Amino acid sequence: MKILILNWRDINNPEHGGAEVLTHEMAKRWVKSGHEVTQFSAKFLGGHSEEIKDGIKIIRQGSANIRSLDMPVHIAAYLWYRRQSKGCFDIIIDEIHGIPFFTPWYVQEKKIALICEVASTIWNAAFSFPFNIIGQNIERSYFHFYKDILFFTISPSTKTDLLQMGVKEQNITVLPMGLSIPKGVHGYPKEKDFTLIFVARLTKAKGIQDTLHVIAHLYKIYPKIRLWVVGQGDSDYVKEVTNLAQQLKVKDYVKFFGFVNQEKKFELMSRAHLLIAPSVKEGWGLTVPEAGYVGTPTIAYNVEGLRDVIVQDKTGLLTQTTPEQMSQMIIKLLRDKHMYRKIQMGAQKLAKTYSWDQTAKVALSKLQLT
User: Fold this and answer.
1) pLDDT higher than 90, residue 332
2) 188 lies in a domain?
3) N- or C-end of the chain: fewer Cβ atoms within 10 A?
4) Which residues pair with 228 in a beta bridge?
5) Based on the domain organization, do 222 and 365 belong to the same domain?
6) Domain tally for the chain?
């Protein structure tokens, strides 16, 4: 088959997330199975306009930032597609991140929509007025045009959201998820002082501000506690976050690493005692099993996506969605070494069951039947 993937970012984009990992891990396995895969994504600073990555042809045009003055990647994809010869592709995967590529309007080939999460409340957390209102209205309306399209998603929570949006249950496939573990990854000794780690893009939706409030609660009781922040974000927002750390008087307890490579990320997750994930919402929460793989359990808000990947009191902890509640649960865990060890072992055991091979196999079987 000749497969075209339309996605706002690709795996080499410095701002890529779990959705891009999922996409790339499936696509490179499809290539190994003899299929031809092309991916169209947004350009980024330092990225080539075209390149081959693990056998996947990646084409980059347009911007992933809808607030940018540059042409949006969604429009660039439409213009590029219209220049292709008829019948170039057998199937097209339309990845939805808040805004879809609207392929039902112009693509004649078979189509599948891939969506990790229905944004809903994320619009208010991620965008200010009027972009939040515009995004919510677009999201509520575009599902009408996808009513006859098959959907791939990654969690029961997102499946429930899709059903509420009017997508037929028989059109939804929940893909099993996998893990990408760098070669040579091994466990490191935990830090002497209790250390939390936050691994995500620095946005309001991911909860970095709540994370700082958690540290503000905890350092008064545990003055040697530390927080490692791994990830980057918009420069203005990063400045806002660092200012908040100073206002809360926790700047000396927080270390911002910015973007790090996979090897360094796993090292830091291994050395930390607990991954903290106070997101507004997730599609699944890929960093949770990543941290679990190296023996670091997660404490997270009890929200869509995260509750799909954490088994309460067995592989991690889910709390009510306030820094105060999260802080109280962390304190409780710090005082119960038996519980910590139990959750640590459970997280590690569950993480080792995930396989991208199975993800790619399930998805490809659906593509071939479409």
Assistant:
1) yes
2) no
3) C
4) 197, 255
5) no
6) 2
Q: Both 218 and 168 in a single domain?
A: no
Query: CATH number, domain at 301?
Result: 3.40.50.2000
Q: What pTM was estimated for this model as a whole?
A: 0.87
The beta-strand segments (E) located in 117-237 are 150-153, 172-174, 195-199, 226-230
Q: For 362, how many CA atoms within 13 A lie in the half-sphere containing its CB?
A: 16
For residue 11, being part of any structural domain is answered with: yes
3-state SS assignment for residue 56:
strand
The answer to whether residue 17 is domain-embedded is yes
Q: Is residue 169 domain-shared with residue 200, that is, in the same domain?
A: no
Instruction: Establish if 187 belongs to a structural domain.
Output: no
What residues contact residue 259 under an 8 Å CB cut-off, 6+ apart? 14, 231, 232
Domain that includes residue 144, residue range:
2-178+355-369
**For the chain, how long is the longest CA-to-CA vector?**
66
Neighbours of 110 (CB within 10 A): 14
* Residue pLDDT, tens place only, 72-106: 999 999 999 999 988 899 999 999 998 899 999 99
pLDDT band at 134 (very low <50, low <70, confident <90, very high): confident
What is the C-alpha to C-alpha distance for residues 170 and 155, in angstroms, rounded to an integer? 15
Mean of per-residue pLDDT scores for the chain? 93
CB atoms within 10 A of CB 46: 8
Dump the DSSP string for 193-217.
S-EEEEES-SSTTTTHHHHHHHHHH
339 and 319 within one domain: yes
Residues facing residue 150 across a β-bridge: 112
- For residues 32 and 169, state if they share a domain: yes
Neighbours of 207 (CB within 10 A): 25
Q: Residue 109: how many CB atoms within 10 A of its CB? A: 15
Contacts of 117 (CB under 8 A, 6+ apart): 155, 158, 161, 281, 282, 283, 304, 305
301 lies in the same domain as 235: yes
CA angle 47, 360, 87 (to 5 degrees): 70
